[in-house]
Amino acid sequence: MERKKYQEIVKKYTPKENRIYNGLIAFITGGIVGVIGELLLNFYAYIFHISTKDASSFMIVTLIFISAFCTCLGFFDKLVNFCKAGLIVPITGFAHAMMSAALDYKKEGLVTGIGSNMFKLAGSVIIFGVCSAYFFGIIRILIFGG
Amino acid sequence: MTTKYNNVYINETAIVTGPYEKKGPLHSYFDKGYDDLYCDSKTFEQAESKLIIDAVDILLEKINKTRFDIDLHISGDLLNQIVASNLASSTLEIPYLGLYNACATSVEGIIIGANMIEARQIKNCICTVSSHNNAAEKQFRYPVEYGGPKPKTTTFTTTGGAACFLSYNKSGIKLESSTIGIVKDLGIKDAYNMGAVMAPAAADTIYRHLKDLKREVNYYDVILTGDLGKYGKKILKEYMLKEYNIDLKNYNDTATMIYDLDNQPVYAGGSGPACAPLVTYGYIFNQMCKKKIKRVLLVATGALHSTSTVNQKLSIPSIAHAISLEVIE
Which CATH superfamily includes the segment(s) B6-167? Predict the structure, then answer.
């Protein structure tokens, strides 16, 4: 059988993902993460009497800690699996990806295990994050003058 | 290539599983099940080798022999350098052959052992195979604790170790014939749709087996494929009908039998080298001993890929080997 014909059969029996439902779940749960972030932001700004710009670093660190800690406790993967992009796109997804890789390679040593494998998933986020920040920064300077 | 055997029998089997299989519908046919995926070991790789060691221990106890009575140990698994089999063999001290044919390893091992027994090169052998969900996830997919969503066609690697004892003593189940399959590649590149990858290989091996032995499909009470899953099963049926004009009525897939697909988080069903033997050695052999089914064709299917070739956008080749099992009259 030709490859094309076979791929048609495969396509026929491959179930469709429910994109609208997944999108809705991600919208709601991602929104909830946003609300929690906003609450934390205001909380830190109020408690420590700092600007919201400074408080945002505190808020990010808190979210990273919560998602890394929950990953270690072993239930965060089920939550991510349900919320999908709602938890993967915010900073929680980045922390989760790093922590889960670190946990996997913990028994292979600090340097050869955790050190060299921790960024297995999250490494590309950093590389392309830094690169795009650089290029978009240049574009911003050229268009808006800084 | 199809070979007929006169005097090869699977005398006894032993099965050890992990927690998910223990909660599955076939749990009563397993010899031992762990509640924890670490199986009393430090790492997942060691846990997988423990599954093999346990299965061999139970098997030796069942056949009332020591390891010095065994001529050969044939084993394979999914991990890099088949490390689970190698680790297990280092403690067993039985002459050892290590194999890799992905999820088709179980039947590949039995075919090699059967040929050597038929040629009287050895008196007996133990064929083992293992897979471990977390060890496989770590190697082939994402970290174990990473919860990124997967498509519905994904299969869930079975955790288990299966061992069988082959000899020319007439007891247990008769190994009647075997077919060594060819590698097929119909251009599927999706590592999350292994059923679609492996269905052409399964179809080709079933067709060759039936053609070589001049048999009709209803000669067998059941034709079992290894781990095509819920969707691969449908693909195989349609492909078989369109390409070879064979209607698979008496057909099932072990991937859909080992788990409760509606209530367990296993997506399209089980997979891994241990999936087919877990169901066959447990449930199917039990049914055969009760003479409820008499002739079974077991077709173990394997996807021969690595994460590197998938990332290089190469399509995934697949293989299937078949053995025909009969009740001793």
Answer: Stage V sporulation protein AD (3.40.47.40)
Please say whether the structural domain B173-327 has been given the CATH code 3.40.47.40: yes
Name the B residues in 153-182 with CB < 8 Å from any A CB.
Answer: 153
Q: Which of B146, B234, B235 sits opposite A77 (nearest CB)?
A: B146
Name every residue whose Cβ is closer than 8 Å to that of residue B303 and which is 6 or more positions away in sequence.
B102, B103, B191, B194, B197, B198, B316, B317, B318
> In chain B, which residues have pLDDT < 70?
none
pLDDT at position B148, please? 87
Whether B187 has its CB under 8 Å from any CB of chain A: the answer is: yes
Q: Assess whether the region B6-167 and the region B173-327 belong to the same CATH fold.
A: yes
**pLDDT, position A1:** 72
Q: How far apart are CA A89 and CA A91, in angstroms?
A: 7
What per-residue confidence (pLDDT) applies to A17? 87
Can you give the pLDDT at residue A51? Answer: 92
Tell me if A97 and B231 make a contact (CB, 8 A cut-off).
no
Q: What is the pLDDT of residue B256?
A: 95
Q: Which of A1, A5, A9, A117 to substitute to test the interface with B, most B CBs within 10 Å?
A: A9
Contact B152 A15 (CB under 8 A): yes
pLDDT band for position A82 (cuts 50, 70, 90): very high
Of B190, B242, B186, B249, give the one whose Cα is nearest residue B219: B249
Query: Domain segments of chain A: what residues?
Result: 3-104
d(CA B253, CA B237): 11
Distance in Å, alpha carbon of B260 to nearest chain A alpha carbon: 19
Structure confidence at residue B203 (pLDDT)? 96
